[in-house]
Design brief:
Number of strands: 14
Helix content: 25-40%
CATH class of the largest domain: Alpha Beta
Order of helices and strands: EHEHEHEHEHHEHEHEEEEHEHEHEH
CATH topology of the largest domain: Rossmann fold
Distance between the termini: 44 Å
Low-confidence stretches: 137-142, 155-164
Mean pLDDT: 88
Shape: elongated
Number of helices: 12
Strand content: 15-25%
Structural class: alpha/beta
Largest sheet: 7 strands, parallel
CATH architecture of the largest domain: 3-Layer(aba) Sandwich
Radius of gyration: 20 Å
């Protein structure tokens, strides 16, 4: 079946380049191209595409507002096409938190944009076309709701002192497609003094710092990009830098640290969720919580199983709230998930001793 795509970009040159990159793909058809939000709104309404590529830095319009309207009125998989500037990265990070499924980085080559990207955009579009949007729980969408959930987590944790599970020493999280939005909901419900938390989110290294800043601005814990040998602290979340290094749990005994290790892709990814989860299983075993969120493929499934086998508490996001159910589905099929829960409930399961 042909994947129908609409390109929204104010630059005629960029529209031509994107169309050229997709023209040779037999399973992808660009059905329209729009130069601004007004044109984009019209063609999306008329043609009902499978995927939209959107430049949110277009002058004369608020791309984030446009994206938010798309997601509210006609949920459609959106790939953000972003420039190399810091402003572009910040806008892209906010767009991912609003529900864009992926980000495609424009080349920062000063000699110009090549007409061929080795099929990267086409592959993103194929993956995005598999996304199915479910009805979103309204409760998780507002700051007030997130605050209420944090209070609930803190209350349940306090009431449950002395019960079966102790406060986790480390929380490890893996996510991919749709993960920034899911992380905003999950981490938004964490308290300021949450256990040290390590995150592998599959994302271009160019956007990882902006994603960390976006989440840090809306979530109670301090959220940073991981650097080598950072001592783990309560109330801190460490996100993999997204470059050619895996993020692992390092250190020993009383002093745990972040560890970044160069290597080859594992489970198709660098950094890999499986590598993070495996290191957590080996170092802290039953003192950890592992959480696998929305994403394409199976990265993290075997690592979550390793954590479960070492006695860790393991959680997978449920299908109804996933943008893509691939990674959680793979973990569930292995018997790796001790709990399967909607995104709005995962903080309670991770932090409550009574969960």
């Amino acid at each position: 079946m042909t994947i129908r795509v609409i390109i929204v970009d104010d630059s005629p040159t960029m529209r031509a380049i994107l169309m050229s990159r997709l023209a040779k793909e037999p399973d992808i058809e660009v059905v329209a191209a729009a130069a601004n939000a007004a044109e984009g709104r019209q063609v999306i309404r008329e043609l009902d595409p499978d995927v939209v590529t959107l430049d949110v830095e277009m002058p004369g319009m608020n791309g984030l507002d446009f994206l938010e309207k798309i997601m509210q009125l006609r949920p459609t998989p959106v790939i953000i096409v972003s420039g190399a500037t810091q402003k572009g990265a910040e806008t892209t990070a906010r767009a991912l938190a609003l529900g864009a499924v992926d980000c495609y980085a424009k080349s920062d080559n000063s000699t110009g944009l090549p007409m061929d990207d080795n099929g990267k955009l086409a592959q993103m579009i194929r993956e995005a076309s598999k996304v199915t949007f479910h009805a979103r729980p309204a409760a998780s969408a507002t700051p007030a709701a997130a605050a209420a959930q944090r209070q609930s987590v803190q209350r349940i944790t306090t009431e449950a002192r002395g019960s079966l599970r102790e406060r986790p020493r480390v929380i490890a999280i893996g996510s991919s497609t749709g993960g920034v939005e899911a992380l905003q909901t999950l981490l938004g419900a964490f308290p300021e003094n949450c256990p040290p938390t390590l995150v592998v989110q599959h994302i271009n290294a160019r956007f990882a710092p902006a994603v960390a800043r976006t989440l840090d601005g809306s979530c109670p814990p301090k959220i940073v990009v991981a650097e080598p040998d950072m001592p783990l602290k309560d109330g801190h979340v460490y996100i993999a830098p997204g470059d050619d290094r895996h993020l692992l749990l390092g250190g020993a005994n009383a002093l745990l640290t972040t560890k970044l290790r160069k290597g080859e892709p594992v489970s198709g990814h660098l950094p890999s969720v499986d590598v993070l989860f495996g290191s957590v299983a080996e170092l802290v075993g039953p003192q950890a919580v592992g959480i696998l969120l929305t994403g394409m493929g199976s990265d993290g499934a075997r690592g979550l199983l390793a954590m479960s086998q070492k006695g860790a508490h393991t959680i997978a996001q449920d299908e109804a709230t996933c943008t893509v159910f691939g990674m959680p589905r793979a973990a569930i099929s292995l018997g790796a998930a001790g709990v399967v829960a909607p995104i709005g409930h995962i903080a309670r399961h991770a932090l409550s001793k009574a969960a």
